[in-house]
Task: structure prediction
Amino acid sequence: MTRIFNLFVAAIILAASVTTAKAQDGAANTPKTAARSKVTTLYKQLSASYLKTTEDQNAKAIPILTKYDVEVDAVKVKNAGNAAKTQQEVNAVGAKAMESLKKILNGEQSFKLLAAISTQENIVSGKNLDANQKAFVTKAKNEYKLSEEQLTAVALVIVQGKLRGDVIAQLAKTNSQQAGQEYIKLFQDLDGQLKSSLSGEQYKNVRADIEKMIKGQKV
Result:
């Protein structure tokens, strides 16, 4: 169990440090334009349908993750330009979060959250992606003109689409009717999140590509 949560903390530190590095890379970027930590948002979006957490777990975990996001954002602003100091302090914040979360989430839930955070980080950073995912990220940046904040928001949606879509695909093997209903609900959930972050034209393009990826088609 200790190893599970050490991996978990490493993942949330990695996700935070990626946006920290982006904020420090180039004179045009300032602490005010750095993408904010989104771990709490990711947890909320996946808690019911993917992590299968209880209301009691959510009530205990969300304040911990909210505090984590706030503290990580403050660290990035305070230590802008000093990557080593930022990493040191983010590590400390993550360690505190781990000590609290290991009393709330079970091993399976923490592994799932780890996978979600890692997937989100990969999309935002453009690393460890398959050819289709790379093609989407390239289009999102170059054709759809998504900002870093918008790409982070879309990454949250893609994580949900991928993880929940994989579960639905397995369900379709035994119950196609229920799987169809789950797909409808999934896209309804994703639509609302996309519309709140993108312009009308961006939404139309991104939504079409995400649907293709969820269904295993090329973008």
Observations:
- The CA atoms of residues 116 and 159 lie 6 Å apart.
- DSSP finds nine helices and no strands in the chain.
- The longest helix spans residues 148-172.
